[in-house]
Amino acid sequence: MSRTPTGRRGATLSPRRVTLADVAEAAGVSRSTASLALSGRGAELRISEAVQDRIKEAARELGYRPNIVSSGLRTGRTMTIGFVSDTVATSRLAGDMIKGAIEAARDRGVLLFIGESEGDGKLEHALLQGMHDRQVDGIIFASMYTRRITVPDALRTTSAVLLNAVPKTASPLPVVVPDEVEAGRTAARVLLEAGHREGVHVIGAGPGVRNVPRDSVAAVERLVGIREVFDAAGAKLAGGVRCGDWQPEEGFAATRDLLARTTPRALICLNDRLAFGAYQALGDASLSVPDDVSVVSFDDHPLASWMRPQLTTVALPHYELGRRAVDALFGQIDGTPGEGSVHRVPMPLRTRASVARAEVS
């Protein structure tokens, strides 16, 4: 019967881990010199570039990997961070938020632990406690859509960042959110630059900032930006229809009700699902987009590019939000939080085919 490389029947030989002492011996330097060079402190302590290069080359050739556990004992860092969300992780729309955070963490040599509460308060508490039990260096607390939240007590004892969430009461935690006010300005400019100064209605909320769905930060801020640009141009929104839930059926019903009273020249839908419903109501009324009614929207949901005509929309920057949250978190961890506690991420315009120039009467 053949024997394993250990000489013991049924046993396997695990490869020996390359140690810092192995690297030092291969490079012909002391262990402390090798440690300083590989930790990036070589120049600081006047180790020549030639010696540092020799140490790094030895580490590469041997396949040396630093011992994160022992390093963590020295530095107080575990090189892990947590990401706790409500439904972001399983949402196709916001999946890029996770991707951005993962890639930003990977660039720093950090692992990201992800947990999802599905809106369950007990599960959320358990997830946050689990992150603390694993001694993560910090936590990103994320929401699927921008909303006001009560900051969990578990976030008050660690470095943490709120992503797509705004605290209901004053909090020292950094906040990373889309720049919804500027997004509103962008959507308004699209219509004004196409000559639409009259007959513009909002679908989803408004036209005043008080007539919005409860706790909808996006609705309030988008309306602030829209009204600011229209006011500056000496123009005025013709009206707005509040929708309790920004889904296609709500957009359809709101637009159908609007058409029973008047024929708009343009619609600003507060998200793409509402716009999808608005398209159906306009079609049922034998009105064409954009020849009869121009439409501009927000989010850049995947369906925006499948609608016919394709929908002009202001995109939610999910990937950039995830990356920015990791940057802001490490600002907290490293004690260099930077200027301001609210980080607003630009929302880019996706110009497509749903806006036409207004006819001059």
From TrEMBL:
PROSITE patterns: HTH_LACI_1 (PS00356), HTH_LACI_2 (PS50932). The keyword Zinc does not apply. Residues 18-75 form the HTH lacI-type domain. It comes from the Bacteria. GO terms for molecular function: DNA binding. SMART domains: HTH_LACI (SM00354). Keywords: DNA-binding, Repressor, Transcription, Transcription regulation. The keyword Zinc-finger does not apply. This is LacI family DNA-binding transcriptional regulator. It comes from Amycolatopsis nalaikhensis. The lineage of its organism: Bacteria, Bacillati, Actinomycetota, Actinomycetes, Pseudonocardiales.
